[in-house]
Write a structure and sequence with these properties.
mainly beta; 58-stranded mixed β-sheet; two-stranded antiparallel ribbon; 2 helices; 60 strands; rod-shaped; disordered N terminus
Length: about 550
């Protein structure tokens, strides 16, 4: 047989259609060697035009044209096709001018001009200008021009300028120019110039040029050019160009949005929004917004807003607002500061300062101050001051200062000063300086000074000085005033009777110095122009200059 004749016969074998059975020219010993045509089984090199109902090839299978039905073919080694190899399973290398297709698994390296498609799993590396897709799972690397991934799980990497997706779980890298998506959960990295998201949980790095999202819990970093959000808990960092959020808890890390940032429930970490920031329930960390920031329930840490900052319930830390700052319930420790106003709904331990006004609904332990006024609804221990007025509803132990009025509803223990009136509804003990008056509904003890008058409903003791008057039913110590023991201008002095002049002192013990000194029972010395001691003999009751009863 000539070479020409053999070549013609080989071409005829390669091209011959055999619908019922495989037929070929096999140059093989024991099934090992060279096969030309549509052989069913061979170990070695097999060359055929159109594969049809092939069983097994171990070695090199070269297919010159598109295969027909090949559902049972198993190729171990290399499957090469000018159009593309097609088999049940390929283990090794699959190279196709247009495609590489398997009914089931493809293991090794597969390259298709248009794409690679596996009916079940891809294990290894797949490369295609169009797509590389596994109907079930991808374990390895898929590089494609339009689409890469699997309808099931991806363990490894799927990279494409188009869509990178996993219909199940993704463990590794999904990088898609248009989108990167994992249906169930993602562990590793989801990267896209468009959108990157997973409907389940996400662990690792998830970045979307337009947006990024995690339907369940996030553990890692989530970044979206426009927005980024975690549907449930976030453990890590969430960054959004306009908005960022976590639907439930932030469990350590940060949520940051150039416009807004929010956490649906508890936040443990940092929440910052260019305009606003909020935590639906508790905060432990830092919460700040360009305009406003708030926590719905308890908070510990720093809360600040360009206009306002608020905490719905209890707070420990620092809250600051450009206009106002408030705590709905208790300030357990720290400070609440507002350029206009600051308030605490119930108890406060710490500092509460407002540019215009500041208030505490119940008890204060610390400092309370307002540019115009400051007040505590019940007891206060510490410093309370207001530019115009300062007040405490019940008892004060500490310092009280008000521009026009400084007053307490019950007892004052400490020091109080005012250009106007210092007043205590009951007892005043300590130092009191009042420009217009110092008044106690019960008794006053200590150093009590006023340019106009000092008076008490029950008694005064200590150093008492009133420019016009000093009076009380009982007085002990040193009293210096124009009129001692006499209420002057009682219509206008709290505690007075309504008369302009009324002698009120029943008993005086000590030294009384003034123009007029009056006492129904004197135990001491009076120095003044007129001095009256009601318990002296008749001739010595009213004396000029000095009177005494020792």
């Amino acid at each position: 047989m000539t070479i020409r004749t053999a070549a013609l016969l080989s071409l005829a074998l390669l091209a011959a259609p055999f619908p019922g059975r495989a037929d070929s020219l096999d140059l093989a010993v024991g099934g090992v060697g060279l096969s030309l045509g549509n052989s069913s089984r061979i170990t070695g090199v097999r060359v055929n035009l159109v594969d049809h109902e092939v069983q097994s090839v171990t070695g090199l299978n070269l297919t010159l044209w598109k295969a027909r039905r090949n559902p049972d073919a198993l190729v171990r080694g290399a499957a090469v096709g000018l159009v593309g190899p097609y088999a049940r399973r390929i283990e090794g290398i699959a190279l196709g001018g247009l495609f590489a297709i398997t009914e089931e698994d493809l293991s090794g390296i597969a390259v298709g001009g248009i794409g690679v498609d596996a009916g079940r799993d891809i294990q290894g590396i797949g490369v295609g200008l169009g797509g590389v897709v596994a109907v079930r799972h991808l374990r390895g690397i898929a590089l494609a021009g339009a689409r890469a991934g699997a309808r099931g799980d991806v363990h490894g990497a799927a990279v494409t300028p188009g869509l990178a997706s996993a219909g199940g779980k993704a463990r590794g890298i999904l990088a898609g120019g248009v989108a990167a998506r994992a249906r169930e959960e993602a562990h590793g990295a989801l990267l896209s110039a468009g959108g990157a998201w997973t409907e389940g949980g996400g662990r690792g790095l998830i970045v979307g040029g337009l947006g990024a999202g995690v339907g369940g819990d996030l553990q890692g970093i989530l970044v979206g050019g426009l927005g980024a959000g975690a549907g449930h808990d976030a453990h890590g960092i969430v960054l959004g160009g306009f908005g960022a959020g976590a639907g439930h808890d932030l469990e350590g890390g940060a949520v940051v949005g150039l416009v807004g940032a929010g956490v649906g429930h508890d936040a443990r970490g940092i929440v910052l929004g260019g305009i606003g920031a909020g935590a639906g329930h508790d905060l432990n960390g830092i919460l700040g917004g360009g305009l406003g920031a708030g926590a719905g329930h308890d908070a510990r840490g720093l809360v600040f807003g360009g206009f306002g900052a608020g905490v719905g319930h209890d707070f420990a830390g620092v809250a600051a607002g450009g206009l106002g700052a408030g705590v709905g319930h208790d300030l357990r420790a720290g400070a609440v500061v507002g350029l206009v106003g600051a308030g605490v709904g119930r108890h406060a331990r710490g500092i509460v300062l407002g540019g215009a006004g500041a208030s505490v609904g119940s008890d204060l332990r610390g400092i309370l101050g307002g540019g115009l006024g400051a007040g505590a609804g019940h007891d206060a221990r510490g410093l309370v001051f207001g530019g115009l007025g300062a007040g405490v509803g019940h008892d004060l132990t500490g310092i009280l200062a008000g521009g026009l009025v400084a007053g307490v509803g019950h007892d004052l223990r400490g020091a109080a000063c005012s250009a106007g009136v210092v007043a205590a509804g009951h007892d005043l003990t300590g130092i009191a300086l009042g420009g217009l008056g110092v008044v106690g509904g019960g008794s006053g003890r200590g150093i009590l000074l006023s340019l106009v008058g000092v008076g008490a409903g029950e008694g005064l003791s200590g150093l008492i000085a009133g420019g016009v008057t000093a009076f009380a039913p009982s007085m002990r110590g040193i009293s210096v005033s124009a009129a001692n023991g006499i209420s002057v201008g009682g219509r206008h002095v709290p505690g007075g009777s309504g008369r302009w002049f009324e002698p009120v002192n029943e008993r005086f013990t000590g030294l009384s110095v003034g123009l007029v000194n009056y006492s129904r029972q004197l135990k001491g010395v009076q120095v003044g122009l007129l001095n009256y001691a009601g318990n002296n003999p008749r001739w010595a009751r009213l004396l000029p200059f000095v009177n005494a009863n020792l």
